[in-house]
## 1
Amino acid sequence: MFPIEIAGPRIALREFRIDDLDASMAVVGDAAVTQTLSFDVRTRDDQAERLSLDIARAQSEPRPDYYLAVANSNDTLIGFVRIGLGRDRSGELGYALRREDWGKGYAAEATALMIAFGFDALRLHRIQAACGPDSRASQRLLARLGFTPEGRLRDHVFTNGAWRDSLLYSLLEHEWREARHDGS
Ligand SMILES: CC(C)(COP(=O)(O)OP(=O)(O)OC[C@H]1O[C@@H](n2cnc3c(N)ncnc32)[C@H](O)[C@@H]1OP(=O)(O)O)[C@@H](O)C(=O)NCCC(=O)NCCS
């Protein structure tokens, strides 16, 4: 499926564009954001190359992931949310926002839109998320979304020069539907 555009009350999920480069540096170029992600802070040159690859990958068939920009009401990129597709109708959720927009509920909105897309449009059965043990906001967010903790993945990622554990969470389709009381 391409292109994807999902509108929420305050933010929208949309495909990346080449002119998102400067705005995306407030996310991937900020060490305070990337310290709890699975990759290191990026230079502008690195990000320019990655962004071009991300834009091209979105149009590949079959699509390996849905990596989308989180855009505010001015259509400015303020973050990203991603579902990577795995086997047996599974997906892995990832997300990050620029620091100036933390604590406003935007991540809750963006991830809820992506999860609904994953279960309804992509027909996933299971969505998992691996987050850093020190990422309190992320753990709180996943709990609020109805995810269940599954355990600790030891030395799961090598980031910022060191191995780091992750906490694994998952949400199953029927749990999500029951929580929404739609039973469909
Ligand atoms: C994780 C992240 C996306 C959360 O974004 P956000 O927009 O601030 O989150 P929200 O405002 O939607 O809040 C979600 C929940 O986290 C809580 N929260 C937010 N910041 C928090 C913090 N610093 N400490 C503890 N809880 C926090 C909120 O209170 C809310 O819980 P509630 O609904 O029970 O009140 C953001 O902090 C971020 O981009 N971090 C860096 C990247 C990252 O860690 N990504 C996740 C990788 S697994």
## 2
Amino acid sequence: MGVIATLLQGPVGHEVGHMVAQYQPIKLAAMEAQFETTDWAPLRIGGVPDMEARQTNRAVEIPGGLSFIAYGDPSSTVRGLNEFPADNLPPVPVVHFAFQAMVGIGTLLIGLAVWIIWRAWRKQPLSGNKLLLVLIVASGPLSIVALEAGWIVTEVGRQPWIVHGVMRTAEAVTESPGVVALFAVTITVYAILAVGTVVTLQLLSRTPLPENSDAA
Ligand code: HEM
């Protein structure tokens, strides 16, 4: 399942990129830390956005990559952050780093899936390669990191809008009383559940299995 889902992730992400370009161009520019409006806009691997100098440093750039992801044509024009008023921009470094983390992990997982298929094709057991086993174990937590990074891209990337171009997040914030108390109760309940889960699992792991158990 993991191998199949991972291979679908690339095309799905690519398709979502098209939609972001169409409906939320500021978010797209923030994801790639693209300041200038340009054709042949590059896809960046790494890079540190400098908000003062309005440029992104130390990135490996693939020319036309962003234009291709956004519009399916490497020569198409992508609107950069400089085109938009400063008070309409999200925190660009946060969005860019989260996007890099998500796509970086996604690419790693795709590589892992290809490796697993290759070994299965060659009828080599997965257990024959220690690095592969380590990566398979790491892929679980890494997927969660990618998932959280994806949400950061989506939610931080659309700031300061709650509905792009229509309503600002500041206008949507509830003024109803009791929100802080409700939040505190929620945090407390989940903290108790988290500690309870860890303690229960520890207790279970110390409990010896019955002699005639199937699992033994
Ligand atoms: C492989 C390359 C990947 C690409 C090109 C990609 C692309 C994207 C894009 C463009 C968005 C923003 C959508 C929006 O704001 O409307 C997004 C959101 C997201 N991504 Fe990825 N992604 C990739 C890998 C992954 C992986 C590996 C995971 C998790 C295991 C992941 C989880 C998410 C999540 C949870 C969201 C937020 C979903 C939502 O807004 O409903 N992505 N991704």
## 3
Amino acid sequence: MTFESKKIEEIYAGKVAKKYDLSMQHFFARWKKLAFNDSSLKSGDRVLVFCCGTGLDFPHILRKIGKDGEIVGVDFSSEMLNKAKDKIRKKKWENIELIEADITKFRDKLDKKFDVGVCTLGMSIIPEYKSAYYNLFSCVKKQGEIIIGDMQLASGWLARLNPLTIFLSKRYGGTYEGHQNSIELCSMMKKELTEVRKSEFFFKSYFYCIGKTK
Ligand SMILES: C[S@@+](CC[C@H](N)C(=O)[O-])C[C@H]1O[C@@H](n2cnc3c(N)ncnc32)[C@H](O)[C@@H]1O
């Protein structure tokens, strides 16, 4: 694990995991809902969720894939995963598996590929986001779908707000470089995937980008 990854892991091992849902549950929910509604997710799909954290994406995904679908959530923070486990137990969700792993090193050991790969609010805090993205990509079958939702640098006159959005995301590991990496990640998606669409929200500082694997 790199020095930066260790720092991120420490952030999520501390107070952040305890209060995460309280501060994050509602803020991004409607944009996430729009992204999952815009996706191809359907009943019975197998979905790989990188940086699943406390599982805030799970209800959105479950609404689409139903009881016949399956979610595999991956995160390297045991504290965040413990919160996800509590949620899964309370809600009696039976089709979710959690894996504690670093997504920059993650290789799917199962022979069946996933229909959809998801990562929200994860890639922008990972310096080796390209490795993480390609690991997600390699786990998704052809004609499958990748859904990324994250913070990014706004451009034009809205760029004046970047210092504020970076400041707000700092306690979750957000940085200027990370928000800039999101722009590069979307360019990669536009080049390598088909039917790519991007939507921007919150003064263009949050986006989702969806595309199909070839
Ligand atoms: C801001 S939270 C996002 C959680 C969830 N996707 C959401 O939208 O609420 C970022 C998560 O990424 C995880 N994470 C960061 N770097 C990671 C890595 N290299 N491998 C696995 N998980 C990582 C953290 O542990 C944390 O749970």
## 4
Amino acid sequence: MLDKKHVKALRQIVGEENVYDDKAHMIAYSYDATRTRYEPDAVVFPRHEEDVSAILRYCNEHHIVITPRGAGSGFTGGALPANGGIVLGFEKHMNKILEIDMDNMVAVVQPGVINMDLQKAAEAVGLFYPPDPASQDYTTLGGNVAENAGGMRASKYGITKDYVMALRAVLPNGDVIRAGKKTIKDVAGYNIAGILVASEGTLAVITEITLKLISKPKLNKTAMGIFPSVEEAMNAVYKTFAAGITPVAMEFLDNLTIRAVEEKFHKGLPTDAGALLVTDVDGNLDIDLEYQLEEIEKVFRANGCSEFKIAKDEKEAADLWFARRNASQSITIYGSKKINEDITVPRSELPRLLKEIEKVSQKYGVKIPCFGHTGDGNVHTNVMVDGSDPKQLEIGHEAIVEIFKITVEMGGTLSGEHGIGLSKAPFMELAFSEEEINLFRAIKRAFDPNNILNPGKMALDD
Ligand SMILES: Cc1cc2nc3c(=O)[nH]c(=O)nc-3n(C[C@H](O)[C@H](O)[C@H](O)COP(=O)(O)OP(=O)(O)OC[C@H]3O[C@@H](n4cnc5c(N)ncnc54)[C@H](O)[C@@H]3O)c2cc1C
């Protein structure tokens, strides 16, 4: 419980109207997308960077813990105030696009800007901000940087880290730092912006973000391949890229997922198919798109694809995307609790990964529908169990641990998208050596010796 004198001091910094400690706000800010709950003691909305600095300096002096929060859409509990203290929110004031510099193709934004708002502002002037997490309509750019978010377009255009040119941030002691420049090249000094990307609010509070924009391709086309088996589809994925074609997206659904979408929406999907691949290509010339699709079809057919459909217009493209876009909500037919992970492997390991997941499914007697961003080697594995049955939950978690081990053995990562936060912290030792974890902890201590920023996350506590 935060002493009232601290609430009063915080009100003196940001104004009465920007500090809340009533029950309704504490409940509203106790959640994120994990649906786990931890109530903070107060929620504070800084008006500008100077406020952030004064708040952090005060909290550091009094050892009050702080959880920075974007939209609370994280899937691993990063924005949960697991140790109470204050939640720092940016949606009220620090939510402005400060500049779109068309000459240098750069945007400067505050952390509370919604991803989609930047995408729209960039497109209005013919520019393009590609990172498009599925949560793009509400997720903030501060949260995207802190989680290094990526989306459907990642296989061609990369993820948030590929667009962060510079950051302004406040250290836990209140000092303000700049990291990076508005230049394409900058090799002076440590890459501090690179360390802050994916730091999940544990090192510093990001107060301004400079992002690279690119020019928007004029044309886009969608195609779908139907495959008899998952293995053939996974071979087709990595062989397409290896053949020199880089689609914008190459997404996948396995048979369990196809059947779930069909049961829910009756769209006439091929329920006997082993897998579907949905792919987008883009460019500025029709002939370029035709070439890419011809090459993709060749690789798909050589790997067992029985049918290859190309959308003729936007409506047909939306139809081809329908099953993928509705995969996540449909698979709930297999169990009330979805233990959803976002493991990622080098693309060429996808066929083996999916085979191993099938073995885990049989060993534990649980259904594991899989779908996801196979163009990035990123598979959403969903262990489906009865959430009211503790035994089933235990089995589900054992299955996940086995999947994590297989992923790491293949040179993959525990998380391609959702980060570590609270939920994956217990698994860090599966993926990192003692020496590597000690280095992470030393970096944490260098930034935050009093451990006031987001303690308990990413297994950083000694
Ligand atoms: C339906 C759904 C779909 C999703 N799809 C994707 C997807 O396709 N790809 C993907 O990558 N993720 C996805 N996510 C996960 C989530 O949206 C991302 O992790 C996103 O980047 C979180 O942004 P947020 O604004 O909600 O941040 P929050 O969840 O509020 O916070 C996330 C982390 O960022 C830190 N943070 C926030 N602001 C700051 C700041 N200013 N300074 C320092 N740290 C800060 C927090 O402390 C926390 O650790 C999805 C989530 C949902 C619910």
